[in-house]
Amino acid sequence: MTRSLDLPALDRIDTLAQELAMLQDRGKRRIAILGSRHVPVVSIHLVELVARALAHEGHSLITSGAQGVNSAVIRSVLEVDPSRLTVLLPQSLERQPIESRDQLEHVLHLVEKPEHDDLPLPVASSLCNHEIISRCDQLICYAFHDSETLLSSCRSAEDMGKVVSLMFFD
Question: In the predicted model, what is the mean pLDDT of residues 77-87?
């Protein structure tokens, strides 16, 4: 007997059912959007469109304060409804680039981590991404295939049972 679809492993059926239920749920969700700092301009427009649409639907969005994808999310949600946005920084506000600080001044729900100021940025970013993921129901991630920190964050989110949508730029 041939099958057109492979059945998931038995230990994945509960997880699959949970993910399908969340995708069909029309309730408001806490959605984390993370991504690369270095993004093609056309892709930035896609990120802005997705973030704006999710905020219009009434979802709460959470991201970090870096340039690129995260900055596009912040810009888009601030235009729709600033109360729907939470930004977690990997370090203190003073450690952010000046162009980021200008944008972050308008964020109502801003969480700084000055206790991570002495850590290397990749380590602080990993800790920040982990906290962001712990606060969300779903993760949308825009990355390159060699974006180690982001890919690791996606694996962590899957391990926590979050719905993960990973999109690659390359």
Answer: 97
